[in-house]
TrEMBL record:
Top-rank taxon: Bacteria
A Pfam family per the record: HTH_22
Signal peptide limits: none
Name of this chain's protein: Transcriptional regulator
InterPro entries membership: DauR-like, DauR-like_HTH, YheO
Segments forming domain Transcriptional regulator DauR-like HTH: 149-208
Organism: Desulfovibrio piger
Domain YheO-like positions: 7-116
PANTHER family from the UniProt entry: TRANSCRIPTIONAL REGULATOR DAUR
Length: 227
């Protein structure tokens, strides 16, 4: 295919794609044999250029660096003349000998997309990790109190990381403290339920809760363990 026919086809492709994608897009076709006025066709108005404009510094630098072996450049960030954020992509069109003769540069003004992202982030913003208003917990929307109880138990045991039946006395007290902090004992029947999970009596659990409030140094001895 001769160069003129190739250019005509590229121009038609550029016009069709920009018409389909919309106003935020632009496709510029550069003739690499005349970098001082390389822009031979432009579809769209993102960069407000006209045919006869020179190649960009990015394109010249890329060609100087790689020469005939210049690879295509997939989406990269750029900036318009007035500071608008752009997203660009560069595709080289080569002749039968593999030499780049045209460059098809696709530019997208992403101002509206970034504004939309900012608006969405504002809608879903939560307190950052470490903030006293956000302890990183997940919320369970249960239909029954039993589901809430099980969610609390599951969450505490997962965070604790050890089987409740394999704990020593101090670890049991620490686990009971975790249940207390999560409000587990606000539900009727949770004392018996947690005691069963830990393999202890409810009276031992009561003594552990008392030890939590007194501190480990003053806590009562475990009535189920030999002294």
């Amino acid at each position: 295919m001769d160069k003129k026919t190739l250019l005509e086809n590229l121009c038609r492709i550029a016009d069709g794609l920009v018409a389909f994608w919309g106003r935020d897009y632009e496709i510029a076709i550069h003739d690499l044999s005349r970098l001082e006025s390389s822009l031979v066709h432009i579809a769209g108005e993102v960069t407000k250029r006209a045919p006869g404009a020179p190649a960009t510094d990015f394109l010249i630098n890329h060609l100087s660096r790689y020469g005939a072996d210049a690879p295509d450049v997939r989406p990269y960030r750029a900036q318009g003349r007035h500071g608008e954020p752009l997203r660009g992509s560069l595709v080289y069109i080569k002749d039968d000998k593999g030499v780049p003769v045209f460059a098809m540069c696709i530019n997208q003004n992403i101002s509206r997309q970034m504004a939309a992202i900012a608006a969405l982030e504002d809608q879903i913003r939560t307190a950052p990790a470490g903030d006293s208003r956000n302890d990183g917990t997940q919320e369970t929307f249960a239909a029954t109190s039993e589901e809430t109880m099980e969610a609390i138990v599951r969450k505490v045991l997962q965070q604790f990381g050890k089987l409740p039946t394999e704990l020593d006395r101090e670890e049991r007290i620490a686990l009971i403290a975790q249940f207390d902090q999560h409000g587990a004992f606000r539900f009727k029947g949770m004392v018996e339920h947690i005691a069963s999970i830990m393999g202890i009596s409810k009276y031992t659990l009561y003594s552990y809760r008392k030890a939590c409030r007194q501190g480990p140094a003053n806590g009562p001895q475990d009535p189920e363990l030999p002294s």
